[in-house]
Specification:
Structural class: alpha+beta
Shape: elongated
Number of strands: 5
């Protein structure tokens, strides 16, 4: 990556992560600045291309759309629950690595991407994930 790209990327990342989770910004000027930076980055990326690691970073800040793995309709095997509920259950000690494994999911579909309770606080959860399907051992 060149220096100008890195500078703009860092600025967009900082502003985006300072915004509340709902995506609200402190001001219209701040929102406009992020959108301008992201638009410029999209044009630049079209010209130069990116590596897989850069693509992941760019997905995190909304420059590229989220990468969604192949998914299957939830088949009622395992317990499906909202991501927040699963995280709270892990925090409360209801689920441990010895109990089973979770798979990242939406309300109706499940992926093959696994998440262990020990990873609950450190794993970067993709933005498409709204639920976890828990499989007891």
């Amino acid at each position: 990556m060149n220096r100008e790209f890195e500078k703009h990327l860092a600025e967009a990342w900082e502003i985006a992560h300072a915004a509340p989770a709902e995506g609200n910004f402190e001001s219209e000027a701040q929102r406009t600045r992020v959108l301008d930076i992201l638009s410029a980055l999209r044009g630049y990326l079209t010209e130069i291309g990116t590596t897989d690691d850069e693509d992941d970073l760019l997905r995190d800040i909304g420059v590229l759309p989220p990468k969604v793995p192949p998914m299957q309709r939830h088949d009622d095997v395992g317990e499906i629950m909202p991501l927040g509920n699963w995280r709270q259950a892990v925090k409360d000690g209801s689920y441990t690595d010895n109990d089973g494994i979770g798979c990242l999911a939406t309300e109706t579909h499940v992926s093959d991407l696994e998440i262990a309770p020990s990873d609950a606080e450190v794993m970067r959860i993709p933005p498409w994930v709204t639920h976890v399907v828990w499989y007891n051992k």
